[in-house]
Amino acid sequence: MSALICLAYFTGAGHTARLAAAIAEGITDGQARLIDIRTMSDTDWASLDAAEAILFGAPTYKGSTAAQSDLFLEDAAERWVTQDWQNNLAGGFTIGAYGLGDKLSALTRVAIYAAQMGMIWVGQSEIGAQVDESKPGINRDGGWLGLMATSSREKSLLIDPPDVETARRFGARVEEVALRWAKGR
Ligand SMILES: Cc1cc2nc3c(=O)[nH]c(=O)nc-3n(C[C@H](O)[C@H](O)[C@H](O)COP(=O)(O)O)c2cc1C
């Protein structure tokens, strides 16, 4: 049993792409496919249509998803009429320069999009060190609607190790849900 999980993202300066790669590292049994939405091919669209789960990724720009990400979402919205993605899984990930940074608005935007597309939303489940001392740095932004990260000031990293590990765990969670979902098909 396998599950295809597509990570469809826009990235301006590489941070969201790095976050997508970290999520994919957590997907070990299923199949992760990274899709840069600026260069959509027929194969990319076919993968999205075949996927058990689609994770929508965008940096937070001015308190929402980046505009180029919205163009992609609107292109894909032609599947709303045909309900092609209905009952498939969805999740979201975003990164901003600030811990808060109004990133919740970006995740809310994609969660509502997924709901309109008839998809089943999978959120974040890590409770982090505030509650569990054995999880230092995990989900340090304290977001549960989806995956949040804060860009690193160290530009050779783009994302700090705690956020990389949080992203891996988010990937593993989505994979676990997707494998259960695939079993029931
Ligand atoms: C036009 C613009 C608007 C931004 N607005 C926000 C914002 O509202 N909140 C925030 O935390 N960071 C904001 N940032 C910072 C980016 O979210 C951050 O640098 C992120 O890591 C960029 O990811 P990317 O390299 O994938 O584009 C903004 C950056 C740009 C260029």
TrEMBL record:
Keywords, comma-separated and alphabetical: Flavoprotein, FMN
Keyword Transferase on entry: no
Top-level taxon of origin: Bacteria
Single Gene Ontology MF annotation: FMN binding
Pfam families assigned to the protein according to its UniProt record, in alphabetical order: Flavodoxin_1
Boundaries of every Flavodoxin-like domain copy: 5-149
Protein name: NAD(P)H dehydrogenase (Quinone)
